[in-house]
Amino acid sequence: MLNKLMEMLELLRRAPPATNATVGAPFARRDIAVVALLIEAAQIDRASSADEFSAVERIVRERFGLDAAGAEQLIAAARSQLDASLEDWIFAAAVREGFTPEERADILGLLWEVVYADGGLAALEESLLRRLTRQLRVGEAEGEAARAHAFARVGRTSTPEAE
Q: What is the pTM (predicted TM-score) of this model?
């Protein structure tokens, strides 16, 4: 098991950051990385809600233009990669290398949308998102803007700072 994991990490490390580099056909490495981070955000507090996973499914369909079956395949591929990994830094690195700064800020907004989907914000969720903001190299102002936009998209009436 450890050897298989080490081989996978080495393959991911050597894979070019190009947008068409694939980990599990037909999905690009960077796309699997985005979805893996969305799943991580949904389950980080160990109290994953149906609302958070529904948000992940909706975001995957909308962002990647997939039907329900295609979204399910991409989510399954990302979950498999996430389950086989020891840390999420490898996914953050793939996103950082595969997307522009503006796209990374948009992705951060999607992550905030997932954690806000259940109507609350757990300390572990906020910690994860703060760490990913740094790992994705999204500036503080852009990160806060992404958070505020996500907060508005989920239709909340209070402010993120109030939580």
A: 0.78
